[in-house]
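ingest -> validate -> predict -> emit
validate: passed (alphabet ok, no gaps, 213 aa)
predict: started
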Amino acid sequence: MNLPNSITMTRIVMIPLFLWILSPHFPWQGSNGEQEIAASILFVLASITDGLDGYLARKRGQITTMGILLDTIADKIMVTAAFVALVAYNPEVVKVWIVVVIIGREFLISGLRSIAASEGFTVSASELGKLKTVVQIVAVVSAILAHRWDHWQIGLIAIPVKWYAIAAIYFAALVAAISAVDYFIAFWRKIDHASKDRRKAAVLTRGKSVRIS
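emit:
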């Protein structure tokens, strides 16, 4: 197994560890926020590996079918696990319908990518898709921290952690919905173009058959 794939596997291993930290069975649940800080750090590290494995695969020329499959699986499981866990961990901030929107977007894009692959084309990630990833990281981390702190008092400045978390979660749902629409439009244009190309090819083939006969 090459280095990029090993990093991807590390991210997959981090997911059950992340869920364990957020569970009631985590042994360090002190008043100083040890549980929230540990979960936040682990999720940020897992998110960093998400970009690192792809970068190394491209730089080292180690892009493989297995790597692409593992990376996709790791991404979907990480997002799904984090938001489902947060529904139970911090229900005041993370609402069920928001999680349905975010996870539904992931399933929709996965389905469209499968169809695109079967039709012989790909739809590259847009800037909205990259923004979606960053917003989701911020939303998950802020929702975790808001479980312990309503606000941080730094000198005379009060940082409303809970309100930032709520804003980030709603913004994540909005970006997920918009990026899904954007991806669907790009997919529809390509599949429509592919259908037209097939029809032209069929007409040319029939024309050649007529001349030959």
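The chain has six helices and two strands.
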